[in-house]
Model the fold of this input.
Amino acid sequence: MFVVTGASSGIGRAVTVALAERDQSVLAVARDSNRLSQLAVQFSRVTALASDLLTTEGVRQVVDACAAHGSLAGIVHAAGTLIEPQAFGAIDTGVLLDEMRVHVMAPIELNQRLRAQLSRIVFLDSYSSNDLRVGWAAYSIVKAAAQMAARSAAEELRDVQVIRAFPGAVRTPLVDAVLNSPADSPTRRTFRALQSTGKLHPPDEIGEWIARLLLDTSDEELAARPTWQYGESF
Done:
């Protein structure tokens, strides 16, 4: 069984669908119970778990749901919050803490508590962790912390295959909000340029790519590469 967090939308949903279409059992975790239920109805191999990873109870629910399984094929950390673009001087530290809990702390705790059962762990990495966009300080701070968690896991969890996957620019709700914003900004111009050149990827393409990493890539191939970037050959 695979565990996919953030499974109700975006990349998480796309990964869930891609795995289910390849006859894999998936524990689909997200807060939106209605959208999760739709997935479970559509795919018999999908089990829906409505859980909020912002809370300790939410993390415990995921661990408890996995307890009946002697081993897990892998976990995909796709849960996230809609991190609003904020300049450094405008960061709401209370909101930032919640975002850190979902993007960084929950994956760390799940990895710790499920480690004995896991074979593979997928972290979704971001170029924003290294490349600061003006006005996006909050986003970059969270992504930088998430990247360091992924790098630490890859270095220290030697008995698990840790996959750091860079999906690139994906048509997520945040990207849609920027594209549809009436206010012009360097970020909106960047996303529109990516869109016009076909480099703004739909989530289903990324979901299929991650499924290939999980199902079609050997341990030796994974161990030989510290990161994987969408569009590169396997």
About this structure: The beta strands are 2-5, 26-30, 46-50, 74-77, 120-124, 161-166, 228-229. The chain has nine helices and seven strands. The mean pLDDT is 91. Residues 93-114 form the longest helix (22 residues).
